[in-house]
């Protein structure tokens, strides 16, 4: 590891990006215990200062994928948001996934318990509010069975990818973003050909477009979403980058154009309990309009992405009908009946 540290840690002017092969070798040392915690920490900080290249992120993503859970779902979309969670926005991606599943589009979500730098509420925190086991191999097996029945797969990442569990302590001690924050979202548990990928800064669109192209996705959107998530916000216009066959195209999505509306509740405390309750309310048709509209917006765009709708407008109409008819809620109940532990089912 020291030879790689010398290359990435030479300072702002002297540091260079590792080649893919070099980064793959460094990743192997990190995950196989051939580097000390001090070396790993120094490497992650040096990479953060230098800024990770697409080769480096791709190498770490592939290294994480090796030995991780593989549960193929034909035609699935992987919805990949930040593992450090949320503090001030609704997890629209969760009810959106049940809308997609109800429309015949398998959806995958994944995440871990809270991580730096945000230390927000995460998907496992929210899903655990429904008494779902997101901590044990037995719980993961139920989640896999539920995916086969419902079309919705949720993967607690440190169960699905043990290598992530190995580096948790180092990440929490550093408290910084690292190459893992991008790589962990690209493990592809379901071999999904479609991807909705969230970023915080629009400045990384080009880098992420190159990355998803080389990792083999058929079509992807890179979204500058709520808190860096894959969720398009409902209260303002936002940018996204559509990537297909190595070609990327920027576009603006304006909710007002589609007669969707909502205001950002900046004073709201988005606890795991509130996230879970709001998600259920959306699926049951009992949520405030802004949360329902946010779900419709994101489901509509993703239905268009995977080709289940010819246009975004058609996707929005399909999502709206799927929610209002109760089909998405029925899909949630089908999933929940399988994932609940035997004592609660």
Structure description:
By secondary structure, this protein is α/β, with parallel strands linked by helices. It contains 16 helices and seven strands. The chain has helices spanning 2-8, 20-31, 37-50, 54-65, 93-102, 123-128, 137-150, 157-160, 162-166, 168-174, 179-183, 205-214, 272-284, 289-306, 312-324, 327-339, and strands spanning 77-80, 107-111, 152-156, 194-198, 219-223, 238-244, 247-253. Helix 2 (20-31) crosses helix 4, helix 5 packs across helix 14 (289-306) and helix 5 (93-102) packs across helix 16 (327-339). It is globular and about 60 Å long.
Topology of helices and strands:
Layout: H1 2-8, H2 20-31, H3 37-50, H4 54-65, E1 77-80, H5 93-102, E2 107-111, H6 123-128, H7 137-150, E3 152-156, H8 157-160, H9 162-166, H10 168-174, H11 179-183, E4 194-198, H12 205-214, E5 219-223, E6 238-244, E7 247-253, H13 272-284, H14 289-306, H15 312-324, H16 327-339
Parallel strand pairs: 1-2, 1-4, 2-3, 4-5
Antiparallel strand pairs: 5-6, 6-7
Helix pairs in contact: 1-3, 2-4, 4-12, 5-13, 5-14, 5-16, 7-16, 14-15
């Amino acid at each position: 590891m020291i030879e790689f540290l010398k290359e990435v840690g030479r300072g702002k002017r002297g540091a260079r990006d590792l080649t893919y092969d070099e980064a793959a070798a460094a990743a192997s040392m990190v995950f196989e215990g051939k580097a000390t915690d001090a070396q790993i920490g120094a490497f992650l900080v040096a990479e953060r200062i230098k800024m990770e290249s697409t080769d480096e992120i791709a190498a770490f993503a592939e290294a994480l994928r090796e030995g991780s859970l593989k549960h193929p779902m034909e035609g699935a979309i992987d919805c990949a948001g930040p593992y450090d969670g949320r503090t001030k926005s609704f997890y629209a991606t969760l009810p959106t996934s049940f809308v997609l599943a109800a429309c015949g589009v398998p959806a995958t979500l994944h995440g871990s318990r809270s991580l730096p730098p945000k230390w927000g509420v995460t998907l496992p925190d929210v899903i655990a509010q429904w008494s779902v086991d997101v901590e044990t191999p037995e719980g993961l097996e139920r989640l896999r069975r539920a995916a086969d029945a419902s079309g919705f797969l949720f993967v607690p990442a440190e169960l699905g990818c043990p290598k992530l569990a190995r580096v948790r302590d180092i990440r929490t001690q550093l408290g910084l973003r690292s190459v893992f924050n991008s790589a962990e979202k690209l493990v592809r548990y379901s071999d999904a050909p479609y991807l909705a990928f969230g970023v915080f800064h629009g400045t990384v669109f080009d880098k992420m477009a190159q990355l998803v192209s080389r990792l083999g996705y058929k079509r992807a959107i890179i979204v500058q979403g709520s808190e860096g998530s894959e969720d398009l916000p409902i209260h303002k216009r936002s940018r996204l980058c559509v990537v297909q066959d190595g070609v990327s195209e920027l576009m603006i999505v304006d909710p007002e154009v589609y007669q969707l509306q909502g205001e950002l509740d900046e004073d709201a405390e988005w606890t795991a309990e509130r996230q879970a309750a709001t998600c259920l309310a959306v699926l049951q048709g009992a949520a405030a309009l802004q949360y329902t509209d946010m779900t419709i917006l994101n489901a509509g765009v993703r239905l268009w992405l995977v080709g289940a709708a010819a246009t975004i407008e058609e996707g929005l109409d399909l999502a709206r009908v799927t929610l209002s008819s109760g089909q998405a809620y029925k899909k949630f109940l089908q999933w929940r009946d399988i994932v609940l532990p035997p004592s609660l089912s």
